[in-house]
Amino acid sequence: NSGVVCLLRPLLLDVVPSIRQTTALALGRLADYDVNLAEAVVKADVLPQLIYALPEENRYYKKTAAFVLRAIAKHSPQLAQAIVQCGALEMLVICLEDFDPGVKEGASWAFGYIARHNPELSQAVVDAGAVPLLVLCIQEPEIALKRIAASTLSDISKHSPELAQTVVDAGAIAHLAQMIPNPDAKLKRQVLSALSQIAKHSVDLAELVVEAEIFPVVLTCLKDSDEYVKKNGATLIREIAKHTPELSQFIVNSGGVAAVIDCIGSCRGAVRLPGIMTLGYVAAHSENLSMAVIVSKGIPPLCVSLVEEHEDHIKAAAAWALGQIGRHTAEHARHVAVANVLPVLLDIYVDTRSSEDLKMKASIFKALKYILQKCTYLPALEPLLHEAPPNIMKHIIGQFSKVLPHDSKARRLFVTTGGLKKVQEIKAEPGSLLQEYINTINNCYPEEIVR
């Protein structure tokens, strides 16, 4: 408000190097504070002055200039675009080629903040020639530089298959994969994130990541003491599992499903989410893969997640995963039903508090529908007769109408447990599917028993 930015601008061209550097630092700290100040710095036409003589400047100034660019770029795509338009990317590439690791780190960081906003800005970073230099940076001995370079490669890769392919073509996967066992937790987080962002786009990219021999070493990350390493490790496995049955089968063969199940059991909250999704993706592909999840005891931790978690989206993911496990055959559905999952799902579905989140409600309904449409294990279905709402009731009654005509023992039990009595109380529209199911059940018994 006092007009300091305009007073600082001419000092960027001062003959004394320390004044130029301190001025840049002041501008960087102003711009870092919030978006309005960053815009004020850009409007004061500071950027051309800042980068005017960058290649000839000393390393302290280069680091500070990179900090200013990063501080401006982080706030919005528009501010990042202003940096691109003033020709700063070419100067940042020169900084990436500097011998000083601190200068490279500052430049990598600035590139990351520019690339993360959208595909166009990420493409501008690629076009400036930054990717091969960033791949060289992850091979440097300094841990801090490795971290920032890996993070920036992750930010570039996340937007599209083409951008991820650029990172792959520069040879990044092999170097990233070699760093998974590194003891530094913050580096591991960024490495796993970068590999996830590459693997998520397509089968081919996921296969390239797998071919870099990340298994079984990536499974050790699921036992890591750092929660983010766990989460990013599980996310990487999820991004590979989702593509094809073959990739999921490879994960199963590597012991990946068992490791993910242990991970879900040992953590809480958002860290659990990618593991839960992984089990759902693996189970969705085929009957055999779903059975692999069941045999590895995947259902109990998913059920625990349904009960324990407070976040609706995590509950919804657990319900979705259970639906994927139970939807294949009667045997799959029986395994889910025996684990007492159905009453839990139904409680969440009819709970008034969870009814506000419509997406959550839809996920729970879908999961119930998938399991109920295959479940012929009547002891698990019968308790639901007394509390299920009409849209779920029709699926339950439908299963009874399939099983009772062919199973005399089940018919006897259905009478003694009060199931048949409950069916008589259901008001169904004449001619509806539900009415047909009820008629089929009633036809299994003599008229006086029905009465």
TrEMBL record:
Taxonomically, the superkingdom here is: Eukaryota
| Gene Ontology CC annotation, any one | microtubule cytoskeleton
Q: Which SMART domains match?
A: ARM
Q: Which GO terms describe its molecular function?
A: microtubule binding
Q: Please state what the protein is called.
A: SPAG6 protein
Q: Biological process (GO) annotations?
A: epithelial cilium movement involved in extracellular fluid movement; filopodium assembly; neuron projection extension; sperm axoneme assembly
Could you tell me which Gene3D superfamilies the record lists for this protein?
Leucine-rich Repeat Variant
InterPro entries associated with the record: ARM-like, ARM-type_fold, Armadillo
